[in-house]
Structure formats: C-alpha cells, structure tokens
Amino acid sequence: MKLEALVVGAGPVGLTMAAELTRYGVGVRIVDKAAERSDKSKALVLWSRTLELIDRMGCGATFVDAGFKMRVANIIAGGSQIAHINLDALETPHPYGLMLPQSDTERLMEQHLNSLGVEVERRVELARFGADDERVEATLRHANGSEETVAAAWMIGCDGAHSIVRHGLGMQFEGDTLPSNWVLADIHLAGGPTPPDELALYWHADGVLALFPITPGRYRVIADVGEAKAGERPSAPTLEEVQALFLAGDAAHIHSPAGGQGMNTGMQDAFNLAWKLALVCRGFVNPEPLLGSYSIERSEVGRRVLVAAGRLTTIAILRGALLQGIRNHVASLLFGLSPVRQAMTNTMSELSIGYPHGSLTRAEGASHSRPAAGERAPVGAAARLVGSGDRPRFALFADADAGSAALIARHGDLLEAETRAPFGNDGIWLVRPDGYVAMTATRGDWDKVGAYLDWVAGVAK
Question: The domain containing residue 397 runs over which residues?
Fold first, then answer.
C-alpha cells in the first residue's frame, strides 16, 4: 500500500492513530526509536469515553477483558467520608474506569494494529525532516546507523514531551509545574482500606495519599510528600519509604478522582484527527475545514483538562489547619448534592467532553430535544456503532423520507447509506464519525444539512 501517513512514536497515542488510519484505508508506517514496548505501568486507567471510541475499532472487548473495573471513588478526610462517587449510573456501555496498566494498553493496541497488517518499526528514529505544500520528506535512522529517506503526504508526531517533530517545527512546549514532590509506587497490599474495586483519596493534615486499585490486592500509591525545591530531582522511593506512608496513622491514601486523564486525552486526540485525515487522504473532502478544526477542538479540551487537574491538585495539597478545614467542609456540602456528583462522574469518565464551540459545530433550527450540537451522541448497545467499519461516515439521525434519500445519494462518500432513528420528533441530528453531534436542524430542513455537508467537503456543489 502506498505510504500516505508516517506516524512517529508508538506509545498509546501513536498506536491509536496508526490503527485508526489503517482501519480507514490509509497507508501507514509507524516508527519508534525504542527497541521494544515499555514494560512500565505508567498511565493506569481507560475512562468510559475512551472505551466507547475503542469499541468503534472493533477491539473493545479485548481491553475490557484484560482490565479491572473501578466503579467508585471516595474522598475521606479526618476519618469522615466527604464524597462517595458511584459511576454505575453513567449512561454508557462502560460505567466504570477500566484499570489497565499502560504497558497492557500498548500491547493490546499493537496487537490490534498487527491484525490490520501493520507492524511497528522499532529502533527506527526520525533524524530530520522537511516539508512543502505537497509532502513531507523524512530521514529515518535505523539501528545499524543507516539512513532512509521516505516521502509521505502527512507526518503525525506522537513522540512525547521531547518530540523531535515538535522541535523540528520550532514549536514551544509551554506550561508550568506545581512545586510539589510526589511518591508513586505500584504495590501489593493486604486488607486495603476500601473494597477492592473502589478508589480512595485521603486528605490529611500532612498531605494527600491515594490508592488506585489495579487488581484485587494490588494498588497504585500516589503520595504528596511536600514542596519541591528549585532544581531538586528526588530519588526513586524505596519500599521502606512507601511502607512508612501507611504507618503514619490515618495519613492514608488515594488520588484525585479527576486524575489519570493524560493518556485518555492523547488517545482521543488521535480519534479526533484520524477520521478527518482519512477523509482527506481518500479524496472525499478537501483539507479544509476539517483539518483546521483539529487544533481548535482538541486544544480547548486539553486546556480544560489541565486547568481542572491543576485546580483539584492545588485543593488537595492545601497546607494549614484552617484552609484544610474550610476545604473539607465546603467539599462535604458540595458532594452531598446529586447534581455535583453527576457532574463529577461525567467529568471523570470524560463523557462530558464535547465541541459546542468547535468550528465544525452548527445549530440550525428550533429543535429542543437533546443532544445539542457539539455534544456526544448517546451510545447504546447498537450493533452498528457510528464510525465503525472501514469508512469514516457521518450518520443521520432523522426520519427517512425523500429528502434524506436525496441527501444520501448526493453525499454518499460522507454519509451512511441509511438514516437512524432520530433522538426526538422535532429535528435532524448529523453525527460525526467520532460520535459527536456535528449539527442539528429542524425536522425536514434538508437544505441546511446539505449546505453543511458541502461546506465540510470543502467544495461548492
């Protein structure tokens, strides 16, 4: 198959990108300078929305079977339970966080990629690259020192914080760091403080200690051990130091329930970009406006995730009895409210992610039924998931009539061949291949839907 996209980096994000593009018929090579996959646990949880998107790939059951379902998150301070957040009520086929070490996530995603006929090329490093309006020319350095020059229409940098792609483009990695030190360890623990499928976060006067269940009897420990000093690089914790954290009275254990979203965010970046790039590569649309929407949509999601995680971490590591007392009292009141708990579960699971202000989102007409434009479309147990199969197609949730038939005939490259049952009797919902509502329109207003698809295709029809 002709090389159309070169993916640099074979972590969870690069593997997801390569697998999605390959599934949609794009010729891909994926390279990584490491000799083998990481054997480290690293990122530990796949949240509900990521699992829904993996289901579209056709391999979701493999991930679920390999993981451990975490259904409850607890926050405890001073011996009292401040919050008990239950994920069972989430409206998703996956009402839980799937505890799965990153090493297993990478293994399973690579196996899925292999099943599509693509192998990761390891010990192959991107040495340099150049680009013009038509293609990227990349020089790859192999383990024996030999170099190979390849040309591709697209190159996707999934090579981490020290990205060669980012450096080559002269792009800055902006941000700041909270001045705090943390201990992280995966341990076996007999007689955990909560049921084995529950996460527990303890706010203590001396800091935060968090336990994530990995499997029954095995936990990830994350502990706040004080402010970091400038230039300080703490050593890896010893077993004795980790054990000592559990011997300090009720200075116990677990992590912010809004954490663990970095890998999920990156994988969802890949899901967002892959269908857009596949439509361009297959010649069904022009590059704009689809490709320009990627950064607009995902940069905003990344910003919100970082802001939320930063705020929650700052709250969790507050020092001083007065501030901690106020925090505990206010948190207890807030988490006693059902809407607050619901909002927290939707945020944790990432079901609340959407693109209401995205450049591809349009709300036309007066439909009052949900979902709104930009929101995630409901995901049930349907055998045919939006975005599944070998073609990235939009789905029409609308009445089947002469207008819908004419629109499908006109835009057969972009639309599924049949309509699906509408979410309400007053509207039309056009759902993107990644499961978000692209536009809403009043029932029967096919002209506006057609105009939208013309615009998405980037051509006048």
Answer: 362-457
SS3 428: strand
DSSP string over 149-176: EEEESEEEE---TT-HHHHHTT------
Q: What is the DSSP string of 274-287?
A: HHHHHHHHTTSS-S
Q: Specify the higher pLDDT residue, 202 or 363.
A: 363
- Tell me what pLDDT residue 17 has: 97
Fill in the amino acid letter for 122.
R
Other CB atoms within 10 Å distance of the CB of residue 218: 17
Cα dihedral 419, 420, 421, 427 sign: negative
Mean pLDDT value across the chain: 87
Query: CA of 20: how far to CAs of 76, 117, 272, 329, 387, in Å?
Result: 41, 12, 10, 46, 10
Three-class secondary structure of residue 73 per DSSP: strand
DSSP secondary structure string for all residues of 175-226? ----SEEEEEEEEE-SS-SS-TTEEEEEEETTEEEEEEEEETTEEEEEEEEE
Q: Does any domain span residue 135? A: no
Q: For residue range 1-49, list pLDDT tens digits in order.
A: 799 999 999 999 999 999 999 999 999 999 999 999 988 888 899 999 9
State the total domains in the chain.
1
Half-sphere exposure of 7 (CA within 13 A, CB side): 30
CATH of the domain at 402: 3.40.30
Confidence (pTM): 0.90
pLDDT, one tens digit per residue, over 260-283 is 688 899 999 999 999 999 999 999
Beta strand 362-363 pairing with 437-442 = parallel
Residue 242 is assigned to a structural domain of this protein? no
Q: Which long-range contacts (CB under 8 A, 24 or more apart) does 399-408 make?
A: 399/443, 399/444, 401/444, 403/444, 403/446, 404/446, 406/446, 407/446, 407/449, 407/450, 407/453
Amino acid at 367: S
19 SS3 class: helix
